[in-house]
Write a structure and sequence with these properties.
Layout (H helix, E strand, L loop, with lengths): L2 E5 L2 E5 L17 H6 L3 E3 L18 E2 L10 E3 L24 E2 L6 E20 L6 E8 L16 E4 L10 E2 L8 E11 L6 E13 L20 E5 L4 E5 L1
Antiparallel strand pairs: 1-2, 3-9, 4-12, 5-7, 6-12, 7-10, 7-11, 7-12, 8-9, 8-11, 13-14
Length: 247
């Protein structure tokens, strides 16, 4: 409760606040036990298998959908060109299975995701096709524009996860937040699935924080060549007691 100290007619008010640890569940209706189950295990940079759910860095999370620059999203080995853009949609539309991305020559997919601001990425959700066509392993790279099939297998990911089948978009794969700050683009490499010839994904959801990039417009003011009439001074001709203009 708040308490008050009286001293020399000065009243000092000290409010007492309770601190609450806020954690967002994978979805609003998820139970506590479901929430514990729905976080994938991350690998790379120490191969962590446990998640610190009380990490104060995690804080509040929000959907990053509106900060994805969908016009610049692209993929390698997608069966239909630009279909990868369709898997980035509001959470409320994730169950729409008419739009999806499917791999072409084999089960592997690379998806490049630019952002319109400075992102702190906290979790990734991937909803795939049930059975063999669901991705089973995911690697993440940040702030790189050169990831493709010529080099992806030789590159060290920032983090990677073993995945489980998620047909409802309930699973969240938590990131190591300290490794995913200042992110302006994200590349996801789905290196394997559960045995199918192709991989099929309906929805990818990203959560975290985004700091909008201030757009600065520089205006150059150019002064036109000075005109004599703009700089004329009127002085009094003392000899003729008249006014005349001089330059």
């Amino acid at each position: 409760f708040p308490f008050v100290i009286f001293s020399y007619d000065i009243v000092v008010y000290f409010p007492v606040y309770k601190t609450y640890q806020l954690r967002m569940s994978c979805r609003d209706e998820a139970t506590e036990s479901d929430h514990h189950h729905h976080h994938g295990h991350g690998h790379g940079d120490g191969h962590d298998h446990d998640h610190d759910h009380d990490d104060p860095e995690r804080g509040m999370e929000q959907s990053l959908f509106e900060y994805i620059d969908k016009t610049k999203v692209f993929a390698y080995n997608e069966a239909v060109t630009e279909s990868c853009k369709d898997v980035f949609k509001p959470y409320s539309e994730k169950d729409n299975r008419e739009k999806f991305v499917k791999s072409d020559a084999d089960e592997q997919l690379i998806i490049h995701i630019p952002f319109t601001g400075n992102v702190k990425l906290k979790s990734i959700c991937v909803m795939g096709e049930g059975g063999e066509c669901h991705p089973s392993h995911m690697k993440a790279f940040i702030n790189r524009d050169d990831v493709d099939f010529d080099n992806v297998e030789d590159m060290e990911p920032v983090q990677e996860w073993d995945m489980v089948e998620d047909l409802q978009g309930e699973m969240e794969y938590e990131t190591r937040i300290t490794k995913f700050q200042g992110v302006y683009n994200l590349t996801l490499f789905f290196s394997d699935n559960f045995g199918g010839d192709t991989t099929k994904i309906f929805y990818i959801g990203l959560k975290g924080e985004c700091k909008a990039v201030a757009r600065r417009i520089y205006i150059t003011l150019a002064e036109q060549a000075a005109r004599p009439e703009d700089h004329q001074q009127k002085i009094k001709d003392m000899t003729k007691n008249t006014m005349r203009n001089i330059q």
